[in-house]
Amino acid sequence: MNASLLAMQFFSGLALGAVLVMLALGLSIIFGILGVVNFAHGALFMVGAYAGLFFFDLTGSFWWALLLGPLSVAALGLGIERFLIRPLQARPPDDAILLTFGLGYVLIESVRILFGTDGRPFATPRLLRGVANIGIGYFPIYRLFVIAAVALIVLALWLILERTRIGLIVRAGARDPMIMRVLGVDIKALWLAIFAVGAGLAALAGVLAAPMRSVDPEMGATVLSEAFVVTVVGGMGSLLGSVVAGLLVGVIVSMTSLFAPEMATITMFAFMTFVLLVRPQGLFGRPMSSAPHEARAEPLAHETPLTLGAALTKARAPLTVALLCLLPWALPSQALAVSILIFGLYAVGYNLLFGYTGLLSFGHAALFGAGAYVTGIAIGEFNAHWLLGLVLGVAAAGALAAIMGALAIRTRGIYFAMVTLALAQLVYYVALQASSWTGGENGLRGFTVSRVGFGSWSVDFLNPVVKYYVVLVFVLFALAILSRILASPFGAAIEAIRENEVRALACGYDVPRMKWLAFVLSGLICGLAGALYALHLSVVPLDTLSYATSGQVVMMTLLGGAGTFFGPFLGAFAVSTLEDVLSQWTSHWQLLLGVIFIGFVLYLPRGLWGAALSSIAWARRA
Question: Taking the model in full, what pTM does it have?
Fold first, then answer.
């Protein structure tokens, strides 16, 4: 292999890294001033690419598209900050993450409605076509342009922030917004402008990247995880870290693709894992602090008039059994009831970590999918008994949770959410490449459990009613264990950690160990849900491990009521039923679901169950 080829690959890495730098800069600027991790950043990148394509088709000029595309998305950013982000300024950072996550759904579905679902080419401008001799070989002119353009933008940003009065105000606002208010600075206008700039940078990255790839509605999901890797490696809020880490990641991916193309994406996540082990706050990040977490849990008995909370807590076991036993007869489809039961259990496992421990994760699809894949492989490849396959699936999910948890709890707050997402994407790409075991893009197939039982006794598992009650046995078993956990000293300890981690440390709790244990227990329950899902479908789609599956459980937990015993099942019922009903009317049902989710984040943060308890309490006081 000659030096010229290596040099060309290095420059390709710089071009890829330049796009990641632009994305990470937008994330870091928004976080540095507003303290918001924008989970819609990938969607804004995608919207920017489509906006550029629209203006390119309209004007016939790439340069007008490069100007007007980012400006239009920056204008959209103004509206997002003013009407969605600003009302959450006094709320915990988790709420803004959740809102921007739901916003991503809305933006993606909106683009699908306007432009369709198929990818579209974005022509390279005529002036920048062809290749140029750079001394060590020939390299595409457009990629050289991208590298140079990003370098100029980074330099301009640095000069503005370090050498102008505006930059001084921005840096001071990031350090102490209260003092800036006292000095007469309109901090709200500053927030508005910064979010618009961050959105514009994401869109600019989208327009620059578009000629190097096709434009499609899903392009933002992949880029978001890559941007988070860059941000975690460089350090949240560090502009220098964004630049260095973006170029590093781009070069690592490019060079790896030369020697082992199937390992390129996996290497990127492995590099992030190494940095986390050595320096959890990133290469240039500040040490992480822990802020008190706003309680989402169901109210204590003395907080609810006429001991409503206490009565429901005491009766939750028989109530749960009664309601779940009657569920298949209250729905038009027993298959829907089975789905609600399984995803309700998935949400219960997630709720243990988010609702009760206060750790927001976007990586639980890895645990759910691990349970499903290992169960399917054990039954399909090794002819294991269905129960042994299920046990192996749960054990695999627990082992994966132990590894992910050990890495993730080295971080705090918003870092935790980003790291879990990135680790889950690593698992996704490993499963995609291990196609001989997992089926790759086609998913795992070739296993069916038609009867379940022990010895000579068995029942027809293909009968949806029988299947429901078989699954219900495992769900009730998991709920019984969870109820004991929550009533134990460990349950009280994780709630103390959720309320105030610093105070829990001062009280003598081994906080890292308890957070890790909560992660593992959560993974075991989610793994059980995944194993049951594999038995239910007799197929494991690759999407089981996807970012969307992680997002689905977040939606279910928040809509039902995070930190409540009944909430996850209520959320699973609401989301699954909405999907079933809305999908019959429109293929864009996720748009409506995203809007509903945003509404809950803004106006009903305690979910359906919390709202019901508050309404009953208010009615009794009246």
Answer: 0.89
